[in-house]
Write a structure and sequence with these properties.
Shape: elongated
CATH superfamily of the largest domain: HUPs
CATH class of the largest domain: Alpha Beta
Radius of gyration: 32 Å
Distance between the termini: 63 Å
Number of strands: 22
CATH topology of the largest domain: Rossmann fold
Length: 441
């Protein structure tokens, strides 16, 4: 087993023999065998133990045992206690899920603060089979049926090659002491139900069931790789990203992908959209643009020819008052102001990021604000008034673009839709003597 363990570490591209390991040890047979194997590798490591306080005195005795193991192997020992049941209740999740989340969060905290390179845990081949059934019962895509990887972030599972029978045989051969977790024998927990009830039934159908399942999981991993490559290729063609982490999906490109719902789900999964929302979005694609869909972190807006994805943010209704003589502001947007007299050689600019305004028509303070329903203005070059909402439609503004639009106003009169259109009433004319030149960065 030692040779296969070393080979497992060697399969990690970024792993070096001089790197340090933080080993999660519960005191059970799996982690005790892992600890003993690591002691023969020459790797530098420390032991980390979580006391979840789920089994009264037993939990405390586990901690004492693991501490003594660390001392016996001459390695550093870290431990932490959790009120797991209370945390599970507060979060509205199962005790199993709470323990898992707490364990890995604390492991990562210790790894970072104590400068370890990797967290090492003792999952083995039989755990793969149990994980397959857990995910299958919960509902999952192909990725959830491929089991655990040897490497996941900074977590390493080097014993995935070993069956539980091999681990038990190793422990017996080395005469290793370990703690028996009494909760492993009851079927209150989902994993235990699969271990004690489901898998034995499957082994009655096929005594080699565990081996066949491991083969099947391996085939599914290969299938998942091909699937992911196809998704990535489609994503590169259909999606564009900007520097702010926002994205857009071309509806023309999306329409060529089949099954569309699967591709769209994979495109949106990094933005926390679930399958139900994706199906609702598919049904709404033929409707009017502007419909919005939300995940816990992002918003997707159906535009005319694309789906716009942006992080959820609060759009300020605050007004900013600009006194005469103000030369620049940095928030909420970056503007500069230059007051000049009209000169004979003055030429109007056509740059969209700059507005030349007849300053004698202004009354201070000016107001910087978001647009709101009911706003009108007289677009430069036109005689009549126009609703801003209609202007946005004519200019094909998306909903996010409308929400990000700022106005410079004189009282309640729109002077400039910043970065877009000046109001006719404030343009520079032959009679203009004084100008305010406003530039947006």
């Amino acid at each position: 087993m030692l040779d296969r363990l070393v080979k497992s570490f060697g399969s990690i591209d970024t792993f070096g023999s001089n790197q340090t390991l933080l080993v999660g040890v519960s005191g059970g047979i799996d982690s005790v065998v892992l600890l003993d194997l690591l002691s023969s590798t020459g790797f530098s490591f420390a032991v980390a133990h979580c006391n979840f306080h789920l089994r009264g005195v037993e939990s405390d005795l586990d901690e004492v045992f693991v501490k003594s193991l660390a001392s016996r192997y001459g390695v550093p020992f870290f431990s932490h206690s959790f009120n797991t049941s209370e945390i599970a209740g507060l979060r509205g999740i199962s005790i199993e899920m709470a323990a898992r989340d707490l364990r890995y969060a604390w492991f990562e905290e210790v790894r970072e603060t104590q400068n370890f390179d990797w967290v090492v845990v003792a999952h083995h081949r039989d755990d793969q089979v149990e994980t397959f059934f857990l995910n299958l019962a919960r509902g999952t895509g192909i990725a959830g049926l491929t089991g655990m990887n040897v490497v996941n972030g900074r977590v390493v599972r080097p014993l995935l090659f070993a069956s539980r029978l091999e681990i038990v045989a190793y422990a017996a051969h080395k005469n290793l002491s370990y703690r028996e977790d009494s909760s492993n024998s009851v079927t209150d927990f989902q994993r235990n139900k699969i271990r004690h009830l489901v898998i034995p039934q499957m082994e009655e159908l096929n005594p080699a069931f565990r081996d066949r399942m491991v083969e099947t999981i391996s085939y599914l991993k290969d299938t998942s790789t091909i699937y992911s490559q196809s998704i990535d290729q489609a994503r590169a063609l259909a999606m564009r990203y900007n520097a702010d982490g926002e994205a857009e999906i071309s509806l023309a490109s999306l329409s060529l992908l089949q099954p569309m719902s699967t591709f769209l789900f994979e495109f949106l999964k990094p933005f926390q959209f679930n399958g139900t929302v994706v199906q609702e979005m598919i049904h709404a694609l033929e409707g009017q643009p502007g419909k919005q869909f939300f995940s816990s972190t992002h918003r997707a807006v159906l535009d005319r020819d694309k789906i716009l994805i942006e992080r959820i943010q609060e759009f300020s209704a605050q007004r900013y008052y600009l006194e005469q003589g103000c030369e620049s502001i940095d928030l909420p947007i970056k503007l500069t102001f230059q007051s000049v007299g009209r000169s004979a050689d003055f030429k109007l600019t056509t740059a969209q990021n700059m507005a030349c305004i007849d300053s004698d028509r202004l009354q201070y303070p000016l107001i910087l604000r978001r647009w709101q329903v009911g706003d009108y203005f007289q677009p430069l070059g036109m005689k009549g008034m126009k609703k801003l909402s209609n202007f946005f439609v004519d200019e094909k503004f998306s909903l996010p673009e409308k929400e990000r639009t700022w106005l410079l106003t004189n009282g309640e009169e729109v002077v400039w839709i910043i970065g877009n259109r000046l109001d006719e009433r404030y343009k520079v004319t032959a009679e203009t003597k004084n100008l305010l030149i406003v530039t947006v960065d």
